[in-house]
Amino acid sequence: MASESERCVDELLFTTNRVNELSQKLTSNQTNELLVESRRLIVETQLFIANNKSLIPSYILKKVTDSLRQLEKQVEDVNKAKMTFKFTSSGPSRSGGCSSTEEKEEVLGDTPKKATPQQVVDKTKAITSSNPVFFGFRERTNEELCMNASEVDSKDVSLVDLSDCTAKIIGLANTLYIRNLKRTTVLVCLACRAITITDCSDCDFKFVCQQLRIDSTTNCTFTIFTSARSMLESSKGLTFKKLDLDELAKNEKIERNWLIDYLRRANFNEHQNNWKCIDDFDWLSPTSASINYKICE
What ranges make up the beta strands (E) of 15-148? Predict the structure, then answer.
C-alpha cells in the first residue's frame, strides 16, 4: 500500500502534467475558459502543496512550483494584453481623457477574485478526488508495454505499480517517474532530464538520462548512460553497468543517427558517460566504497 508521501508525489506529478498542458494551450489559445481553468488549478495546487509540504520531496516540489510559475506568468501576460487592447481600442473619451471607469472595471473583471478560505478548502477537495492527467502505465501485471517516439516526445512519463512486466519507452521523454515496480524490465531510450525511481525491487533498468535518482529500492540492476552523477538513498543490493549506445541501437533495432540526434536535442554529449559517478547518501565514509551498490565493469 502506498504511503501518504507517495500518494502526494503521484498527485503532484499528475497535476504537473495538467499544468504543462494548460501552459502549452495558452501559447496559442487564450480563451476565458482556459484562463479560468488555469487559475483554478493554480489555486488548488498551491493549497495542496501548503497542506502537504512536509511529505513532498524537494525535487518534486521544485518541479511543480517551476511549472506553476510559468503558468501564472502566462495568465498574467494574457490579462495584461487584454487590458491593453481594451484601453487602446476604446479610445479617448469625449473629454479627451482615458476611457471611463466603467470600461476599466469591465476589463479588470477578468482578474480572478481572491478566494475565501471556504472556497479554497472546497477546491482542495477537488484536486484529491478528481482524475488528474496521467501519462504512462500503472497497475499492470505480466504485460509487454511500449510507447513510441511520437507518443512520449517531451512528455513527463510515469510507470507505477507494475509487476512482472516489460516496458519500453522509445523516444525523447522529458522526465520519468517510476514507483513500486516488481520483477520488471524497463528500457528508456532517452529522458532529457531526471529519472526518479522509488520502491522498486528485483528489476532490470536500462536508461539514457541526464540524472538518475533512486530511493528505497533493492536488488536492481541499472545499465545506464548518464551525463550527471546518480543519487541513491535508502537502497541496497544495486548493480551499475555501462550502457553502450552502439549496442543499444543494435539490440533495439534503432538507427544510431536517430539516437545521436535525440541525444543532441537533449544537450547530451554522446562521448561522456558518467555511469560510475554515484552518490550514496547513506554511506558517508570518504575512505571506503559503499556496500549498498557495486560497479560491474
Answer: 136-141, 144-147
Q: How far apart are CA 23 and CA 154, in angstroms?
A: 14
The three cell numbers of residue 259 are: 539516437
Cα–Cα distance between 18 and 57 in angstroms, integer? 20
If we measure between CA atoms, which residue out of 3, 84, 4, 72 comes closest to residue 35?
72
List residues bridging with 191 in a β-sheet: 173, 209
Rounded Cα distance between 221 and 201, Å, is: 10
Tell me the pLDDT tens digit for each residue of 64-108.
888 888 888 888 777 766 555 444 444 444 444 444 333 333 333
Give residue 81's pLDDT: 66
The two counts, helices (H) then strands (E), for the chain are 8, 12
Q: Is 292 in contact with 232 (CB distance < 8 Å)?
A: yes
CATH topology (fold) of 136-281+290-295: Pectate Lyase C-like (2.160.20)
DSSP code at position 223: E
Residue bearing cell 507517495: 6
Compute the distance between CA of residue 110 and CA of residue 71 in angstroms, rounded to an integer.
Answer: 16
**Smallest Cα–Cα separation from 198: which of 219, 220, 183, 213?**
213
The per-residue pLDDT for 275 is 95
